[in-house]
Please model this.
Amino acid sequence: MSDTTTPASENPHAASVRRLASAMLRTAIWPGVVTVVVGAVVATALVGASGLFGALVGGVVAFGSSLLTIWLMRFTGGMSPHFVMVAALGGYVGKMLVLLVVMTLLGGVEALHRESLAFTMLATVLVWAGAEVVAFKRTRTPTIIPEN
Amino acid sequence: MSNIVLAQAAEAATNINPGLAAIGYGLGAIGPGVGVGLIWAAVINGTARQPEAQGQLQGIAWISFVLVEVLALIGLVVYFIASAG
Model:
């Protein structure tokens, strides 16, 4: 098991996790942007300016949520699985609490169209997750990485 | 008389949608929470058995984490829509 004090540059496991994180980010970011743009255009056409604002805010929230996972992945790349579990569960709980507060506050903003925000956010998150799965399938991670 | 009672009841009725939506979101967050815990418990087990495979196990765990987390985000979006006054 790798030591948590091992520098990331010397840890082959950290390198493989960070390579996967980079591949996931590269693969997912453009489909995510396209989804937000499509959502904004559709919402503007159907609802107007409030739909545009709602879709853009929904896209920003979805991007923030997804990018946090990528950052968490890079940050915990060199750590022992015990600490990664703590970080992942803490990240999950923190993200859900923050998003709950943010969405509740956004629900009170009259200038944002509720459904535009919700559906753009949902579409962006789903497309992002799908693109990450594609990146995962494409990235070759060796099954066994010798310690030395 | 009954009409008056019904009218008074209608006036007293409040919108319980936000509360129900919040309860639904809380219930919806339980499953992904259990899922995330199981994923990383499996990674700890797997790494203890085969430390050389740590990198691949963590990669699999992160992509599973993303997919499980999407479920909670869907619950959040449903909460957001359903909590409309």
In short: Chain A touches chain B through 52 residues (CB under 8 Å). DSSP finds four helices and no strands in chain A.
